[in-house]
Write a structure and sequence with these properties.
Blueprint (H helix, E strand, L loop, with lengths): L5 H27 L10 E7 L4 E6 L2 E6 L1 H10 L2
Antiparallel strand pairs: 1-2, 2-3
Length: 80
């Protein structure tokens, strides 16, 4: 039987939403940049520990750290 409870579902949804909000905020900064500018900086997601879900999202000198096991696992799998 699944270990999914309402409490776990809400908690996991909140964690995912927080992670996607952080990534979305950085992506919005990139989208706001002048599309013709040669100086636009890439957005980099670094997964330091997929099991713990530790992800660093970086753009320029800005870094946001978050924990999201599912997102970390998906990024790690995509990089294979």
């Amino acid at each position: 039987m699944s270990d999914l409870t309402r409490r776990n579902f809400v908690r996991n949804s909140a964690i995912t939403a927080a992670g996607m909000t952080a990534i979305g905020a950085i992506a919005a900064d990139v989208a706001d940049a002048d599309s013709g500018a040669a100086e636009s900086e890439p957005v980099v997601a670094y997964v330091s520990d997929p099991r713990k879900g530790e992800i660093s999202v970086m753009k320029g000198e800005r870094e946001v750290k978050l924990r999201n096991r599912k997102l970390a696992r998906d990024i790690s799998r995509a990089a294979r």
